[in-house]
Design a protein that fits this description.
By secondary structure, the protein is α+β, with helices and mostly antiparallel strands. It folds into two domains: 90 residues, Orthogonal Bundle (Arc Repressor Mutant, subunit A); 59 residues, Ferric-uptake regulator, C-terminal dimerisarion domain (Dna Ligase, domain 1, 2-Layer Sandwich), CATH 3.30.1490. The strands form two sheets. A three-stranded mixed sheet has the order 4-3-5, with no helix packed on it. The protein has a two-stranded antiparallel sheet with strand order 1-2. Helix 2 packs across helix 3, helix 2 packs across helix 4 and helix 3 packs across helix 4. The protein is globular. The two termini are 33 Å apart.
Length: 160
């Protein structure tokens, strides 16, 4: 990722934490920076390894899980449940902390794209869920799909 992108998003995250009265510690900043710099979703253990490769003193996986829980709680990072991996909010500088997040996940290369969905669609989806006798237990939707790059190579694992 570009340094300016990472720096701008870290600065915005600091402002969000200050506004919410949260302590955005160096460790929290470093974990978020690791996610922002990542080209793909990372597991907590991958984050721990990346963190420890460039930072002293090292950090334990347990601490990384706690930090990820904090970042999730204020919607600066997300856990992709289908992959048990984490990503940073796509654009913290335009942070809205919306009620529902939508992710497109390539079933081939596992790249992820967070998409913005209108409140009208979110409301309609909630109504459909309620009408079906279910209640949403998650604030995110993960859609398995095929990214443009993988589609261009004509790779489709479902057709094999």
């Amino acid at each position: 990722m570009h340094k300016r992108y990472v720096d701008n998003n870290l600065r915005a995250a600091t402002e969000i934490c200050e506004a919410k009265g949260c302590n955005f510690t160096q460790k929290r900043q470093r974990v978020l920076k690791t996610l922002l710099e990542a080209e793909r979703p990372l597991s907590a253990y991958e984050i721990t390894d990346n963190y420890n490769a460039v930072t002293e003193p090292t950090i334990s996986a347990v601490s990384v899980y706690r930090i990820l829980e904090f970042l999730e709680s204020i919607k600066l990072a997300y856990r992709l449940r289908s992959a048990s991996k984490y990503i940073a909010c796509k654009n913290i500088t335009k942070y809205q902390g919306s009620d529902m997040s939508f992710f497109l996940i390539c079933r081939n290369c596992q790249c992820v794209n967070e998409i913005e969905v209108s409140s009208k669609i979110v409301t309609s989806l909630a109504e459909l869920i309620n009408k079906s006798g279910f209640f949403s237990s998650s604030s995110q939707v993960e859609i398995n799909s095929l990214c443009a790059d993988c589609k261009a190579t004509h790779y489709d694992p479902l057709k094999e």
